[in-house]
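One such given next:

>
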Amino acid sequence: MHRILSALLLLSAVAASAPALRPALAAGAIPAVGGAAVPSLAPMLARITPGVVNIAVRGKVREQNPLLQDPFFRRFFNLPQNQQTQERETQSTGSGVIVDAARGYVLTNGHVVENATRIEVTTKDNRRLTAKLIGRDADTDVAVLQIPATNLVAVPMGDSDRLLVGDFVIAIGNPFGLGQTVTSGIVSALGRSGLDIGENEDFIQTDASINPGNSGGPLVNLQGECVGINTAILAPGGGNIGIGFAAPINMARSVMDQIVRHGEVKRGRIGVAIQELTPDLAQSMKTSHATGAVIARVDPGSPAERAGLHGGDLVIAVNGVPVRGGTQLRNTIGLTRIGEKVDLTIDRRGSEYKVAVNVEAAAAAAATPPRPRQR
């Protein structure tokens, strides 16, 4: 299957040479037309935009000409056999969202701060703060920064599991280094994967206009709650065409909790192999459900076997949240704290059961022979 990677752009941007324009500090009264107030997002945005920050990153990357890795090329031109790589300094910009004002925690994308040697955060009131990288997780492209916790405003986190296709959302960020920018749209789709951004993909798709530099900024609902972290766009011509992707805030919050607690993400497992539910498979299983994740195999001695799960069980909900597919189930289990339980609702030959399964460290899966990944 031809992939869309050539058109997929992560949203960090090279820093613009011109200074970013300052957004207006105050909004006037909402005008009235025919005696009735015009609907406006301004009051909600006034509350939360102080919690959205711009991020400037300086970093270093190692580069080496591919020709210099060829021993025949080096011998022909009488070059040293141990050719040293060169370091190149980089500058980029992105966005972030303050999610804990008391401790100064900022969520952003992992690719925004990759290879960073210095990270500077600029708040809406133009304070420039040096940020500390607490940790980043490549599998979800989520990173956690910490800035001095003085007079900060946090954007409240919502529940991305409650999102529905068609819900109105707003993207806030720092496109092209211009400064804080707000755009609006709807949730176009849920559970998008196969983008080769990370190992654990379960993206919200939106048509809210987002561009390079929006990476790490929040996707918020009409209540002003952060429901996603803007991550990438599909851009065949290099610009926005109305297809953007955001990491669900529930996943990002789980990643943040583990990074803050452990400095890394310790993923869990229950010992099952999962496959997607297809129409043909649903017909053969005689299930009325159109979505879910099929347990294809249960590992011997695993928590799943001890809990009584069987191959052929259809998982239709996890912790009370309907399961759209295998990616969502894998992410929920993988980001559950080791030692806790996940509550699965399963359909077994037309009858529904609830099963509580302990989550153990994913490292315990080493006893199971690895399977080749399909791409």
